[in-house]
């Protein structure tokens, strides 16, 4: 198929090519919670005119629109550039319904979606909404409050901007784009694709929005309409059951993908696109542009289901806790979350020690992480001495100096170097509570160690 040329005034695509583009766009729905398809319908169909005569169909843009325009309010965050070749990551957010006009939503769902054009692989990682994380500029809080805080304080980039920064820092993964959808948009799109098929393996109580709607679903195969699908992906078996919800959300995503891949559904999607646009136009925001949507759509149709990795930050990766103001929270276990992250966001997953070496020192050397050592104690020359010691072990120490006074030795991770982090944490007895993710692609170091008084008292340097 010849590549379409995207212009500010119109796009001309052969009839077969148009079908393939639309199929690809709708396929992205199944991989990314239907967000990109919402956007494609919202943006493309509202401005296109298809001429029913021999020749190429023409997509023409309305006045003031262009293929490179972002599909978000002017206050939204600026996307990270994407070259179309490297791995691209997008944060998908489902918003809670607001109770009163003017109220600000929290995020009910967060899924980080990734796609790698070179290996033709994709993945998604669900983040529990009760995860206790650092919210940049606002101390620690539940991750689902980041969007609310950004909107309430009218920060640059708004709620999406702060949510993206929070997830970037939490996982140490750069995020190119975001997309948010409200519940009504989700419901209407499920109805537009004639529902989704899911298999329920144990009794589940679901509660569609509204009064007297509670249903009990026994084990079996179901076709869920929009309202029931929303209730299904939001259902909790009990307090804190974010993990089961995340699994059901991913099952729903794959069910959408299966439904959309049916060729017999494509004519209906195309024919009903104007109505879909009308239903969803106010329910979706993103900083993707039309040309990027088409690019992702064409890419997505090339990825088989077996190449889509799925992960959930689950009970083995977190600890139950209580916030200072008495809320039930989930405290992350950084070492375990880093493993899940690398399984989803690297080409072949984390390097297994058996594949390279059983020696943690060799794994650390292979990573060649840039390590900075700062002295947070009153002991003069400690950073230099520690740096020399670590260099003798093969650590790539690139900087030594003085740092802020520190009671206990702390590790700050600026980019993903899991084996070096694990090696230094064990060597220097740094607990997971003092290992902090501060993702920064512009940092001059990958890992920073701030020495504390415990290192002075307990170190075994020669």
List key phrases describing it.
462 residues, alpha/beta, Aminopeptidase, Alpha-Beta Plaits, 2 domains, six-stranded mixed sheet, five-stranded mixed sheet, elongated
The CATH superfamily of the largest domain is: LCP protein
Radius of gyration: 24 Å
Strand content: 15-25%
Strand order of the largest sheet: 13-8-3-4-5-14
The overall strand count is 21
Average pLDDT metric = 75
Examine the coordinates and then state which fold CATH places here, giving the name of the CATH topology of the largest domain: Aminopeptidase
CA-based shape: elongated
Could you tell me how far the N terminus lies from the C terminus, measured between alpha carbons in angstroms? 66 Å
Structural class, from helix and strand content? alpha/beta
Main sheet attributes: strand count, strand direction, barrel closure: 6 strands, mixed
Task: Tell me which CATH architecture of the largest domain applies here.
Answer: 3-Layer(aba) Sandwich
Number of domains: 2
Uncertain stretches of 5 or more adjacent residues: 1-67, 350-357
- The CATH class designation of the largest domain is Alpha Beta
- What is the helix tally? 16
Q: What is the share of helical residues?
A: 25-40%
Description:
This protein is an alpha/beta fold and about 450 residues long. The protein folds into two domains: about 10-345, Aminopeptidase; about 355-460, Alpha-Beta Plaits (2-Layer Sandwich), CATH 3.30.70. It contains 16 helices and 21 strands. It has helices at about 15-30, 35-45, 145-150, 160-170, 185-190, 225-235, 240-260, 265-270, 275-280, 290-300, 335-345, 355, 360-365, 380-390, 420-425, 455-460, and strands spanning about 10, 60, 90-95, 105-115, 120-125, 130-135, 140, 175-180, 195-200, 205, 215, 220-225, 285, 310, 320, 330, 370-375, 395-400, 410-415, 435, 445-450. α15 links the parallel β19 and β20.
């Amino acid at each position: 198929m010849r590549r379409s040329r995207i212009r500010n005034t119109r796009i001309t695509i052969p009839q077969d090519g148009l079908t393939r583009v639309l199929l690809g766009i709708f396929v992205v729905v199944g991989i990314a919670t239907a967000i990109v398809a919402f956007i494609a319908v919202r943006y493309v169909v509202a401005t296109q005119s298809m001429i029913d005569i021999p020749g190429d169909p023409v997509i023409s843009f309305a006045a003031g629109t262009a293929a490179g325009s972002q599909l978000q309010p002017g206050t939204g965050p600026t996307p990270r550039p994407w070259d179309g070749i490297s791995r691209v990551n997008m944060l998908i957010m489902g918003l809670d319904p607001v109770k009163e006009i003017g109220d600000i939503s929290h995020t009910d769902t967060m899924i980080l979606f990734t796609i790698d054009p070179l290996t033709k692989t994709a993945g998604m990682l669900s983040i529990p909404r009760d995860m206790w994380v650092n919210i940049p500029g606002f101390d620690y809080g539940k991750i689902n409050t980041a969007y609310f805080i950004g909107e309430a304080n009218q920060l640059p980039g708004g709620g999406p901007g702060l949510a993206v920064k929070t997830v970037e820092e939490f996982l140490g993964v750069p995020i190119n784009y975001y997309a948010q959808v409200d519940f009504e948009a989700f419901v209407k799109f499920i109805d537009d694709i004639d529902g989704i098929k899911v298999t329920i393996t144990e009794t589940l109580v679901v509660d569609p929005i509204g009064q007297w709607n509670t249903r009990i679903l026994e084990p079996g195969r179901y076709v869920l309409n929009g309202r029931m699908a929303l209730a299904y992906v939001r259902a909790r078996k009990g307090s804190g059951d974010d993990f089961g919800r995340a699994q059901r959300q991913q099952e729903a995503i794959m069910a959408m993908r299966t439904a959309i891949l049916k060729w017999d559904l494509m004519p209906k999607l195309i024919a009903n696109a104007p109505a879909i646009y009308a239903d969803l136009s106010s329910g979706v925001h993103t900083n993707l542009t039309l040309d990027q949507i088409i690019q992702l759509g064409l890419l997505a149709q090339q990825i088989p289901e077996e190449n889509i990795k799925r992960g959930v930050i689950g009970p083995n990766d977190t600890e139950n806790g209580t916030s200072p103001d008495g809320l039930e929270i989930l405290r992350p276990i950084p070492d375990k979350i880093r493993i899940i992250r690398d399984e989803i966001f690297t080409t072949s997953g984390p390097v297994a020690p058996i594949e390279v070496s059983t020696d943690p020192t060799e794994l650390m050397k292979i990573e060649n992480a840039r390590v900075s050592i700062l002295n947070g104690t009153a002991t003069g020359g400690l950073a230099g001495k520690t740096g020399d010691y670590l260099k003798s072990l093969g650590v790539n120490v690139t900087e030594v100096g003085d740092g802020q006074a520190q009671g206990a030795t702390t590790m700050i991770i600026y980019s993903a170097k899991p084996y070096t982090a694990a090696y230094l944490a064990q060597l220097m007895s740094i607990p997971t509570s003092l290992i902090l993710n501060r993702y920064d692609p512009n940092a001059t170091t990958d890992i920073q160690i701030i020495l504390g008084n415990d290192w002075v008292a307990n170190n075994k340097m020669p």
